[in-house]
Amino acid sequence: MTAPKTSPRLEIRDLVRSFDGKRVVDNVSLSIAPGQVTCLLGPSGCGKSTTLRMIAGVEMQDSGTIHVDGALICDTVFRVPPERRSIGLMFQDFALFPHLSVGENVAFGLKGAGTDRKARAHTLLDRVGLAHFIDEFPHQLSGGEQQRVALARALAPSPRIMLMDEPFSGLDNRLRDGIRDETLDLLKEEGAGVLLVTHEPEEAMRMADEIALMRAGRIVQRGAPYTIYNAPADRDAMAFFSDIN
Ligand code: ADP
Ligand code: MG
């Protein structure tokens, strides 16, 4: 008997997207296992956010396929809408709803009875150390606290995939390391597959199980962080890592 094969949480194959006749995402393929963090790392303008937006379903690819837990969610003729993809989003500018309390923000995307939703919100806020803020409003929280609430909100519906687009770049340096580590712990516990977009090599080195190095719409190298750091594929990759010490 063969062992049951577990599907990757996320598998994208040959994604292509052009704007004005220019391929900004050019045959990108990736697969992410449960609990795995893959960093899409590359300079500004190389196509990272466009790739993420196609996976989220808010941008349509020209060609290529997207599978979540082995099920097709998007190709060029078939398309599961964004809200039914079991994908959590955390973007730098994806702000909390200012008119909702912290608890209501976290419970926002949840279905079911009010008491169940509130209990789930409480559990997640407790996990990020902010349960005491449940009835406060976002403007009463610091930037770092708001980012923790955004993480709790994204994880509340137990998404199978978490997409994060430079989520920590608005935070000051002192806070960032702590929040990165907490975020990783929580994501691993929840068993989501994580695709984290960043242009900062240092962030990818700290957070990734695997780095996919992207340049001009293509993935030019994939591997464990230290493998890529120690053996960059070419001079551009080497230059990109050279300011880490
Ligand atoms: P990154 O996230 O790596 O900085 P993006 O995916 O945001 O890169 O953008 C890749 C390229 O695609 C850029 O040249 C950008 O200007 C272009 N682009 C992105 N979205 C659009 C759009 N809606 N219309 C035209 N060009 C776009
Ligand atoms: Mg971007």
TrEMBL record:
Domain called ABC transporter: residue spans: 10-241
Alphabetical UniProt keywords: ATP-binding, Cell membrane, Ion transport, Iron, Iron transport, Membrane, Nucleotide-binding, Transport
One GO MF term attached to the UniProt entry: ATP binding
Protein name in the entry: ATP-binding cassette domain-containing protein
Organism: Ponticoccus alexandrii
Boundaries of the shown chain within the full protein: 1 to 245 of 371
